[in-house]
Amino acid sequence: CFFTFPTRLEDLRVKLENEGLVNISYVVVNHQGAHSQRKFHLLKESVSDYITVYQQDEQQADVWTTLNGSKDDFLIYDRCGRLVYHLGLPYSFLSFQYVEESIKIAYCESKCGNCSYTEPDIDGVCQNITRSADEKLAEIELKPSGHHSHHHHGQGQGHGHRHRH
Predict the structure, then answer these.
(1) Is residue 102 one of the residues assigned to a domain?
(2) I want to staple 125 with a disulfide (CB 3.0 to 4.6 A). Which of 20, 48, 130, 164 is the partner?
(3) Is 154 contained in some domain?
């Protein structure tokens, strides 16, 4: 996990940037235990310069305790610095879509109205993300489920409804 996590996080960062989600800050908080501190340089070397690795001091208050989280959690903040999602295990595994989808939702939803931190072309980027998600949802709904088929009354492809959990 120690060596695959940085690679998967970097892959996710690049994927989101290629989709137009720019100016996102990624921070990895290293555990403050002695074992983790000895491996800090390995962690730092395994991520790109676009991902900050924060080393806690053994004498400071633990960041994860302060944030009411655990070391494997993802805390996703919006552009105004508000906590939007707190994902713990197993939802924080990067092999699942939860972290990616949570970042996209935090990026695209503007709960605070007009904002000076909003990217100029965010509407186009977010429309593409929504359209792509709707197409995936429609594709899943069109495939037979094997044992029996499901009909979703009142929800067609063209409605553009997506439920976010």
Answers:
(1) yes
(2) 20
(3) no
Residue 54's pLDDT is what? 92
Q: Which residues neighbour 162 within 8 Å (Cβ) at sequence distance 6 or greater? A: 130, 133, 134, 137
Q: How far apart are CA 78 and CA 84, in angstroms?
A: 6
- State the pLDDT confidence band at 80, using cuts at 50, 70 and 90: confident
Supply the pLDDT for residue 154.
38
pLDDT of residue 43: 87
pTM of the shown model:
0.70
C-alpha of 56 from chain center: 23
Position 56 in a domain: yes
Name beta bridge partners: 85: 76
Domain count for the chain, please give it: 1
Please name the residue ranges forming H helices in 95-145: 98-108, 122-142
Strands (E), 3-79: 26-30, 51-55, 74-77
Residue 42 resides in a domain:
yes
Nearest CA to 163 out of 140, 133, 141, 143 is that of 133
Determine the structural domain holding residue 137 and report its residue range: 5-142
Residue 111 has pLDDT above 90, yes or no: no
3-class SS at 51?
A: strand
